[in-house]
Amino acid sequence: MSKRVPADTRQAVVVYGDDQDSDESTAVLYERKGNAWKLTGTWPAHNGRQGWTTDHHLDDERSPVGAFSLTDAGGSLEDPGSRLPYWYDDNAYAAMTEDGDEHVHDFDYVIAIDYNRLKGVAPFDWNRPEGVEKGGGIWLHLDHGDGTSACVTVPESGMKTLLRTLNPRLHPVVVMGDRDHLSA
């Protein structure tokens, strides 16, 4: 993990799947104390319906492999105590689902994964610095029991822990992918 993480990072969420085509994964929170990484939380997770990719594109239903900073959070529910800047907007997140949609609560809490997005803006900002075709809008959000379009999902307890724990002064990142890519 260390070779993928910037030197100033003191918190890392590692999300890994068993193989490249799996939508099931595990999310693990680590905090660096000195030169050692300490495991501080673990949750079952889901990622893209089609698995992982090193060349993510819009609508490929694969989560991008890599290490990405975590700088902004938000949701359709009030801030539960996030240390990251938090944008509450029930209308913005509700617009992504329809009434009666089984995924209506997926975006109660989100943490933006800084893949093809501007930092320091709300997670639902749709600017794509590398172009729309490279996808974006990839978040950590509430789990709904199966694969996603490209996001990573964890149970509500995990999201609340991450929101209350990830500290911008500690330069948190997410390192994500299948085991083979992460061990390379």
What does this molecule look like?
This is L,D-peptidoglycan transpeptidase YkuD (ErfK/YbiS/YcfS/YnhG family). It comes from Streptomyces murinus. With 184 residues, the protein is mainly beta. It has one domain (12-178). Helices cover 11% and strands 32% of the residues. The protein is built from three helices and twelve strands; from the N terminus they run E-E-E-E-E-E-E-E-H-E-E-E-H-E-H. It has helices at residues 90-94, 156-165, 179-183, and strands at 11-17, 24-33, 36-46, 52-53, 63-64, 66-69, 73-75, 86-88, 110-112, 139-142, 152-154, 173-178. The strands form three sheets. The chain has a five-stranded mixed β-sheet. Strands 8-7-9-10-11 form a five-stranded mixed β-sheet. Strands 4-5 form a two-stranded parallel sheet. Strand 2 (24-33) and strand 3 (36-46) form a beta hairpin. The protein is globular, with a radius of gyration of 15 Å. 42% of the residues are buried. The mean pLDDT is 93.
